[in-house]
TrEMBL record:
GO terms for molecular function: nucleotide binding; oxidoreductase activity. It holds the Pfam family GFO_IDH_MocA_C3. Residues 2-92 form the Gfo/Idh/MocA-like oxidoreductase N-terminal domain. Belongs to the Gfo/Idh/MocA family. It comes from the Bacteria. It comes from Edaphobacter dinghuensis. The keyword Oxidoreductase applies. Residues 104-220 form the GFO/IDH/MocA-like oxidoreductase domain. This is Dehydrogenase. Keywords: Oxidoreductase.
Length: 300
């Protein structure tokens, strides 16, 4: 195991604290090392493409944090390079490995709520307390909360419903703290399967996540559905009555993601959050930001 960070002093502290044997001086040194089989890219968004292409050039499998890149064109280049090299390429959509979303996906597939019609996913957090100081810098970040956490909401709905985003209409606003990126946003999305969905994201509210699916015969509700640090209550309702309640823990979601990636690297399974699938999230993000500027509904 090894690490490289832009801040070498911080990297040295991390390597010492977590007993990481290799603290590389450069990213090239990390990617070239025979001790490294796969690279997990957690750099700022603007570095994802170059970091991914470098790792692939050295024959390393790549798991890249979300959002996958700064735009769809970059994401497509990354996915095509991985395919050409025959290397595993995944995106860190860790909530696909949460027990809460697995349960909702199973309920939808089983027809427990009939035909899905409406969906909503929300992710709010106070960005002022976030450790990543670059998330309001448009030269490093793909965007504000739309790209930072809204992409999790988009991916969660795509995963649970098994549908894709067709078009997006965006309302968003900046504030003095967010600078050139948005601080609060609401996305209205048309999805395949006749589903209308809303994604709401805020960097100016107390932490909260929510996932809801309304169908022709029932409703699924997951308060804290994208949350990992507390129990998550899942509900199935029909006709206003509570039919089933399930409580799950999502604390092992990141571990499940990394373990799945490792098994996929060994050929044991298919990784649920492929880089090629991540390109679809980037297309939705591009449409969302284009809509914010054009004030029109934009096709994905």
């Amino acid at each position: 195991m090894g690490m490289w960070r832009r801040d070498q002093t911080a990297a040295a502290k991390n390597c010492a604290a977590y007993k990481i044997p290799h603290c590389f001086a450069t990213r090239e040194e990390l990617c070239a090392s025979p001790e490294v089989d796969a690279v997990f890219i957690t750099s700022p968004d603007a570095m994802h493409k170059d970091d991914t292409l470098l790792a692939l050039k050295h024959g390393k499998a790549v798991l890249c944090e979300k959002p996958l890149s700064m735009n769809t064109a970059e994401a497509e280049e990354m996915a095509e390079a991985a395919k050409a090299a025959g290397l595993l390429f995944g995106v860190g959509q860790n909530f696909r490995f949460n027990h809460s979303l697995d349960w909702m996906r199973e309920q939808v597939a089983a027809g427990s709520i009939g035909q899905p019609q409406l969906a909503h996913a929300q992710y709010s957090y106070p960005a002022a307390t976030a450790p990543r100081k670059w998330i309001t810098d448009p030269t490093l970040a793909c965007g504000g909360p739309i790209a930072d956490v809204g992409v999790h909401c988009i991916d969660a709905l795509r995963y649970v419903l098994g549908e894709d985003v067709v078009s997006v209409s965006t309302l968003a606003r900046k504030d003095d703290t967010s600078g050139k990126v948005e601080a609060v946003a609401s996305l209205q999305m048309e999805m395949t399967g006749g589903v209308y969905a809303n994604v709401t994201a805020s960097a100016r509210a107390p932490y909260r996540t929510l996932v809801e699916i309304n169908g022709s015969d029932g409703v699924l509700v997951a308060e804290n559905g994208l949350t990992v640090d507390r129990p998550v209550q899942l509900q199935l309702r029909r006709g206003g009555e509570l039919i089933e309640t399930v409580t799950v823990e999502n604390g092992d979601g990141y571990t499940r993601m990394l373990d799945s990636f490792a098994r996929a690297l060994r050929g044991g399974e298919t990784f649920a959050a492929s880089g090629e699938d991540g390109v679809k999230n980037m297309r939705a993000l591009d449409a969302a930001y284009k809509s914010w500027q054009s004030r029109l509904r934009e096709q994905v």
